[in-house]
Amino acid sequence: MSGSSFGKIFRITTWGESHGPGIGVVIDGCPAGLALSAEQIQKFLDRRRPGQSKYTTKRNEADSVEILSGVFEGKTTGTPISLLVRNQDQRSRDYGNIAELFRPGHADYPFTEKYGIRDYRGGGRSSGRETIGRVAAGAVASLLLGELGISVRAYTKSIGPYTVDEDDYRYSEIEENSLYMPNNTVAEQAGQYIASLMAEKDSCGGIIECIADKLPVGLGEPVFDKLDALLAQAVMSIGAVKGVEIGDGFKASLSSGSKNNDPFYARDGHICKKTNHAGGSLGGMSDGSRLILRAAVKPTSSIARTQQTVNTSGENTEITVLGRHDPVIVPRAVVVVESMTAITLADLLLQNMTSRMEHLRKIY
Amino acid sequence: MSGSSFGKIFRITTWGESHGPGIGVVIDGCPAGLALSAEQIQKFLDRRRPGQSKYTTKRNEADSVEILSGVFEGKTTGTPISLLVRNQDQRSRDYGNIAELFRPGHADYPFTEKYGIRDYRGGGRSSGRETIGRVAAGAVASLLLGELGISVRAYTKSIGPYTVDEDDYRYSEIEENSLYMPNNTVAEQAGQYIASLMAEKDSCGGIIECIADKLPVGLGEPVFDKLDALLAQAVMSIGAVKGVEIGDGFKASLSSGSKNNDPFYARDGHICKKTNHAGGSLGGMSDGSRLILRAAVKPTSSIARTQQTVNTSGENTEITVLGRHDPVIVPRAVVVVESMTAITLADLLLQNMTSRMEHLRKIY
Amino acid sequence: MSGSSFGKIFRITTWGESHGPGIGVVIDGCPAGLALSAEQIQKFLDRRRPGQSKYTTKRNEADSVEILSGVFEGKTTGTPISLLVRNQDQRSRDYGNIAELFRPGHADYPFTEKYGIRDYRGGGRSSGRETIGRVAAGAVASLLLGELGISVRAYTKSIGPYTVDEDDYRYSEIEENSLYMPNNTVAEQAGQYIASLMAEKDSCGGIIECIADKLPVGLGEPVFDKLDALLAQAVMSIGAVKGVEIGDGFKASLSSGSKNNDPFYARDGHICKKTNHAGGSLGGMSDGSRLILRAAVKPTSSIARTQQTVNTSGENTEITVLGRHDPVIVPRAVVVVESMTAITLADLLLQNMTSRMEHLRKIY
Amino acid sequence: MSGSSFGKIFRITTWGESHGPGIGVVIDGCPAGLALSAEQIQKFLDRRRPGQSKYTTKRNEADSVEILSGVFEGKTTGTPISLLVRNQDQRSRDYGNIAELFRPGHADYPFTEKYGIRDYRGGGRSSGRETIGRVAAGAVASLLLGELGISVRAYTKSIGPYTVDEDDYRYSEIEENSLYMPNNTVAEQAGQYIASLMAEKDSCGGIIECIADKLPVGLGEPVFDKLDALLAQAVMSIGAVKGVEIGDGFKASLSSGSKNNDPFYARDGHICKKTNHAGGSLGGMSDGSRLILRAAVKPTSSIARTQQTVNTSGENTEITVLGRHDPVIVPRAVVVVESMTAITLADLLLQNMTSRMEHLRKIY
Questions:
Q1: Which residues are noted in the entry as NADP(+)-binding (chains A, B, C, D) (predicted)?
Q2: CA-derived radius of gyration, chain C
Q3: For chain A, which end, N or C, has fewer CB atoms within 10 Å of the first or last residue's CB respectively?
């Protein structure tokens, strides 16, 4: 089935394996007339590039993007935008020893059962490099949203038990620490925590938060394609994500209706909410408040410790996952969460154009 | 856009408003040859019917289902299955006073902004009655899964702060208490908690857990249509759900790789996992272990207390939501979560048939 | 698979068998704010109703439509529009003798091979009654197009060898003869031709032409979803249609570039074409000229003559198809072709809204 | 909208403009375990390459394909297959003079109106080079069908008025003449006809026929996704195609039921048809007979003669289309029609796997 596509109007299709010739994405349905350059996309890709801090893998992946179609004289033409990133630093040797072993926490076993064949080099299609296509498309979606004044921003809320409370958010510090946390002090502590795990050949996880501002009211379709539902799919489809919540999320299950309901009030002709427990979504549609979502990221599965496993012949054995791996993928996944959020919003923005006869009359 | 459909092969389309002539669903893509009767579907619908305990609304909704197409001589024919439930107990008067008010926590405001028109009677399309179509389709999906030995079961894990710990699960007790909790003692305490909130014209939320057993390995598509991702969309698309997690979910973000990875081992020619932190999904595909997901349900938004709000003219005012409402929707939502899980699994089961050339050769 | 749905934004899903409880359609994606009543839909349905002339079956099918959802206070709400027509005159006896026979020219044999089960009563899902859902949806699409000044109209161009040449078109006469031909004289001759075939227990076919005026320029997507391509699918999906052409169609294969190219010229600030060999479509997009398509309809397969066939046990035998059948389905299929054209155009009109950034800025 | 994708399970997405960096296709949903090499795809691409005879353009397009993903150790892995063909011989100068002119018969005018921007170089996205992606995907589809014993073959039935009658078909001669006609004598006459038009700076069209053998019975979905309907969309979506028919097609409209119905008979336990007026499709599903379809191709729109037109400022003017163009595109379009047919069949073959519960039991 076509599981490599996402979106209905702004529709992306990613392709590529970690150790094949390249990785890419085709974006179909981007409106014509959006200013777009390879440089703008590259900026997004650079945010997920490894080797930028001591907490990310030392692999040197230039990940340089080429626009193959859909842009003419600096503007999108309305035709599919094909983006290509060649794979370069492919040390296939490092992965040779796992051809016949199923790595715990990885897709190796179900992948083999599903297809009967597996490109074992670096995880193949299940590699984190698959997200390159998502981030490239996320850059385009973000530019589209930006034209309409909508901003999307993700950051690290927590690394293991080290969390930044909402009261301590300092957004300006996000770019100042290599963990992309909105608080340098917590980031410092989280860094030491990561270092201690690295020393034990272990890894950790964390929580990424993503916010979007200035959304028009009414984005999201009322039943299965609710704003929250599509964001949940979008974000849960990122490799290591094991949970997604909107607004107060799981905490809401502990609250009461009188506390959890956000009262409306009018100010200067606008309808506002006194609180935002809902995280910007009511009945699956944007409500004009800030959109807030969180994604729980599991600890990196590739660890250098010896682990028990089974080989492709079904025999009990041990495995030591070699290669260069991130002790925590949260910082690099921040831009992936942001990208998937932007793609979902761009798609719903386009879908919403067709909701009223009045809109047709404005255009035709 | 077509936001009222879900699934790619086993594809359901729901329709209907709470106070219109009826509610229904069309299931396209159900394989031919499945034994199916209205009675079997009715059993599922009866599980979401109100009026069954003191914690659910007193509305008397018979919700009797009629099969309009797709079944011949007791078996599905491969053509669309159309299911209809007529609305009966529609006290439109109760809702008259909210025609010009935006209820806090409800879809009223974004719905009006999106469409410029709103069927205000009982929430219209955003009513909980929309889930009737989902549950009717869930019954069909469950029967299909059952034919292949797959079982899906949901229950209430917690009501507000009253949680059943995994060690205390007694599955046989689920049907013994009106909250569908796997522990009668906790259910008793939770019931008192609900009663205390009802006395204060307030409401509460909770957590629903859903498990599936005997899934073939490899269900789910590796990128955007991961098992977890589609389940997240499916479950988050239920009205009051604000968070979804698979396996250890948010807790995994606090763990380490060495603890969170589930080691493989072989037994009697089968590949098993020593633990199941992953909740039955690796790389977005089923791994042969029990599938476990949880959904966080917010407190019922409709409460009898007076709340601050705005009217459709943009003026500050107050609202008192009359009518008969559940103080907690969790017990009635259990079968909805189970249904959406079953529908997602049935669809992925069918999708997965086309994954290998070997499968084609078995059929052609 | 979901073969019972058509369209991407204005998306219809039909369901129902000829001898089940009813036939219907769900329209998802119709914009909110379109005035819509059951009477307006009924008018369309009445055009395909049998028993209106001596050349159509004598079955008495009231085919009364009920709007089950999606309309509130006379306007569409943006939610799915569910339309139901109960089956009434179901003489199952007439079809009993064909339960174990494969009727020549019918779907019986491949249907049985595909599904292993077949609702043999009156053709089941492959009955012409399936088009009731299409026509009901076509009514809604036509109303939507009408709001934007677009008109769609189909008529009978030929019955067997009796053709109305373009020079002899008198559109006002279409409603004056029971064959819906734009020339009463040719219709008279065609009527005698049909009568002669009826006398021999035989049937005939013909050609339906459909035109659309005042289309905006640019409808249709440049590659697979070309205006012509989607119209071809839409019209070829009608039971008895065996060929589709746009503009000069097959005749264009005999022409030369210098004759077939339609020269452009400017008049009063508008870009026009001197001729319209293209039939209103260039590169798969509407070009501002009249859209013209033709559909070839095969002779009715159900004839009272004895025919050779095979039974479900694989034995050679004979069949005499009883029941009341149209000697030619062309007149009743006219409104079906018109409906499928309108549905396709409505969908492409909505799709086209998202083609330019400028359009987004007009709405947001 | 996503108009650059086709198919539901075997789903292709093409991208690229004639004068951009390259052209390509992503195939998602191809089952794992199909032997596939660049050489096999190249063979198909070479069939559409220009410069092979005096009747095709002299442009030298190497059109060398690179497999970027989805194949490992010579077999498909079940992940998306990305195929890239770099553009090489891009004489942009030749097209400079048409930047501000709308070429008659081309997409220039509606494209500009639709998007507000147009890559005018060589037709951009509306160039015939877009079919490279289709043919590359068609190669993969053909290999898949071949594994199941299904063959698909297209050829030129007529060039202008020069037609090969069915009685005169000599399939072995198809590869012997540069027009791919199944009769060398007619091909010789057609060649002279083309030469005479070239001398007058004019062009011609023709008819392509495509046949498929050994299809399983039951391919195609009964309502909108009928075998005929999807083939009609697939083939009509090819640039210059103006008409499509199945079996007797338009001729069937002149026949009678008693002649047009194909009688069934049993032979050696198989169900056969005495005739094949239906062209292998009954009720939109394959019936076990040879599938036959025809596509009408209009004369090449690019002719060197001076033509009347309008410029982008809306002024009347003249145009002379320079560059190297095929006087007839039929021979090069043969492999495109074959490819689109193969892609449609592969997709329906995969869709059909899910039609029966029995099929599920064979796999799970």
A1: 48, 54
A2: 21
A3: C
Contact D222, C13 (CB under 8 A): no
Q: Which of A81, A133, A77 is nearest to D13 (CA)?
A: A81
d(CA D208, CA D218): 25
> Does residue A327 sit within a domain?
yes
Domain at D198, CATH number: 3.60.150.10
Phi, psi of A117 (to 5 degrees): -155, 145
- Which of B26, B120, B264, B309 is the best residue to mutate to test the A interface, defined by the most A CB atoms within 10 Å of its own CB? B264
Task: Note whether A360 contacts C9, CB cutoff 8 Å.
Answer: no
Using CA atoms, how far apart are residues A129 and A325, in angstroms rounded to an integer? 12
Under 8 Å between Cβ of D62 and D68: no
Q: How many domains in chain D?
A: 1
Strand spans (E) along chain D = 5-6, 11-16, 22-28, 65-67, 71-72, 75-76, 81-86, 151-159, 162-163, 206-213, 241-246, 264-267, 270-273, 281-282, 285-286, 291-297, 306-310, 316-320
Residue B150 included in any domain = yes
The C-alpha atoms of residue C84 and residue B14 are separated, in whole angstroms, by 14
Kindly state the average pLDDT of the residues D193-222: 97
- Kindly state whether residue A46 falls inside one of the protein's structural domains: no
- Verify whether the Cβ–Cβ distance B107 to A202 is below 8 Å: no
The pLDDT tens digits for C84-99 are 999 986 555 556 667 8
> Is the four-CA dihedral B174, B177, B178, B183 of positive or negative sign?
negative
CA dist list (Å): D227 to C110, C237, C238, D298, D352: 12, 9, 12, 24, 11
Burial code of C198-214, b = ≥16 C-beta within 10 A, e = fewer?
beeebbbbbbbbbbbee
Helices B38-48, B131-147: inter-axial angle, 10-degree rounding: 130
On whether D127 is known to bind a ligand per the annotation, the reply is yes
> Is the Cβ of D214 closer than 8 Å to some Cβ of chain B?
no
Q: To which H or E segment does residue C191 belong?
A: helix C184-199
Task: Quote the domain boundaries for residue C78.
Answer: 5-363
At CA B212, angle to CA B208 and CA B218, rounded to 5?
130
Mean pLDDT over each residue of chain A, to the nearest integer: 94
**Do the domain assignments include residue A43?**
no
In this predicted structure, the answer to whether residue B54 has a pLDDT above a threshold of 80 is no
Tokens of A251: 């905490």
